[in-house]
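Hi U.,

Before I forget, here's the chain from the pilot set. I'm dumping it here mostly so it's searchable later in email.
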Amino acid sequence: MTRALIASFNLKNLIGPDQEYYTFQSYTPEEYAWKEDWCAEQILSMDADIIGFQEVFEEEALRNVIAEADARGLALNEAVIPDRTKRYRKKAIFRKLGYTAYGDAALAFAPNVNDGVPGERRPGVAVVSRFGFLGEPEVIQVLPEPLDIPFRDLTGEDAGHYRLTRLSRPILKVRIPIGKQVVTLFNCHLKSKLGEYDRSPEAEFAPAADLTRYDPVARAMGNLRAGLRRMAEAWVMRRAIVEELEQGRPVVALGDFNDGEHSVSSEIISGEAPFRNYAWMLRHDAKDHGDRYSKDDSKRITAAVEKVRLHSAERLFIRKSTRDMVYTSAFGGSYESIDQIYLSRHFLPETTGAIGEMEYFSCLNDHITDGAHPEAPYNKLASDHGQIMAHLRLDD
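Structure:
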């Protein structure tokens, strides 16, 4: 068997010093050094085989963080791992203490096509893999054909459509050989809940952004637009996931979903849960009240739904855990998980054709504080996300 630790890590605006990423926001050399130090320490603590990163402005800055984690890890190995002359060097305790450097790992970085001039930068995503990649990484952001989402009014007439030509941030798709298996991994950072406010081309700023003339209705419309974009981006990712699943390929989908597990956008990506018994339901083409799906229909429908469904690693863990809760974000008194790892049915041991299972799930969130609370400590240099990890065992 082969074990693999897969993690998701939102680095929160990783960029080198003295570079304005958002308006009037940049790091001094001292602030950047602190941030690099903190991020490297988290990577060292995780010691994950595969990490999906979000909010990366520069590949060089990410490589520097990984190199710093390696330097510390190798120094620790030198201090605590017995050398070859010690007869007890092969004990399991030392295997667990040892850090594996990323010197031979593969790194894929997907810059954001929406990236702009200083002050108007847009972050990308990245994946590092100790197992390497099979084939070339694929970036999904600019759509080959515009996605038109049609609407109809409740009275039936055409109500226009919403058009999506590109995603707010790239989705990075990589195929990773793990032991004798090959897993397709998707790393995403979906549109945030930050409102998209309407602004005319000649205007300096959107009227709804002017808080001195607070417009709750316009701001609510901005939230609606952001939610619609996030759900549309989730559908684009779902389409790519289903293409892999229909070819029988195991899938892991992770990243910053900017929404909880039970949100519409997350459920679009994971797929719908099957109904308990479709034989209770009226057929889609029912002609009378007793025209329902047969028992055989019910079995076929359930199998079709389960074939392309993804399962939350966090939820699988909680089912067999006594832990009260897991959270990766805190704001306004709400502690929730907006970072997710989803697994296809290939990692459910009770499923026919399973290739392994998730043995454990862990989260590094001790650094999370509710930044919306006036008394809470806030650190712009540390990440405002927890790091989540799925511990997988794959059969050879």
